[in-house]
C-alpha cells in the first residue's frame, strides 16, 4: 500500500510563511474598493426602500406617526438652537473681522454688509448648520438604531409585523426636513447679527446703514438659495445616520464604529452636495 510522501521542509516553511503573511498593499486597496462599492450599493438600496416607504405613508396619512415626528423636531430642532445660534453668531463676527482690514484699506466700509450677508446667507449658515446637525442628530440616529439592532429589537419589530422604516426612519427624516430649514433661517439671523456688531465696532458702520445696505446687496434669490439647500442636507443626514445604524452588527464597539462612520459620511456628502449646488448655480447664473 502506497503512502503519501511528506512535503520537503522548505516547502512547508514557505506554505507557513504564505499563510501567515499580512495582505499586501494592492490587496488592501482591492478590499477597500470592494467594501466601498458594496456599501454604496446598500445605501442606494436603503434610499429606494425609504422612498417607497415614504410614498406609502403619504398615500395613507394615517400610517404617519405624528407624535414621533414632533418629538424629533424638538430634539433635532428646538434643542439645537443654542449651539447653532452661538456658532453662527461667532462665524458672522469672524467673517466681518477678517474683512474689516481689507475694506479699511480702500475706505469701502459699507461693503462689509455685502460680505457678511452673501457669505452667511448663501453658504456659511446652511453649511455650518448641517455640519452641526450631522454631528449632533445624525450620530444620535445611528447610535439609537444601532443599539436596537444589537439588542435584536429591530428583529422583534419585524416579527410583530411593524415596519422598521416606518417606525424609525420616516419620523426622523420628515422631522429633520422640517427642522433644518428653520434652523438655517435662525443661523442666518444670528450670523448677520454678529457681523453687524463687528462692523459697528471695527468700521464704525451703524446698524441702520448696515441693514439698509444688506437689503440692497442680498436679493431674495440669494436668500432662498441658502434656505433651499437645507432640505437636501437634512435628507442626507437622516438617511446616512439611519443607514449606518441598520448596518450595526455585533456588540457595543460596532455601535461606536457605525456612529463615527455616519458622522464622517454625512459631513462629506453634505460638503459634496454643497459643491454641486455651487456649480449648478454658477451654470444657471443664480
Overview in brief:
The chain is mainly α and 286 residues long. Helices cover 84% and strands 0% of the residues.
Annotation keywords:
mainly alpha, 10 helices, elongated
Question: How would you portray this structure in words?
Answer:
The chain has 286 residues and is mostly helical. The longest helix is centred in the middle third of the chain and has 39 residues, at 112-150. It has helices at 9-20, 25-59, 66-76, 81-106, 112-150, 153-159, 164-202, 207-217, 220-246, 252-284. It is built from ten helices and no strands. 84% of the residues lie in helices and 0% in strands. The mean pLDDT is 84. It is elongated and about 70 Å long. It has one domain (64-284).
List the helices and strands and how they pair.
Elements: H1 9-20, H2 25-59, H3 66-76, H4 81-106, H5 112-150, H6 153-159, H7 164-202, H8 207-217, H9 220-246, H10 252-284
Helix pairs in contact: 2-7, 3-7, 4-5, 4-7, 5-7, 5-8, 5-9, 5-10, 7-9, 9-10
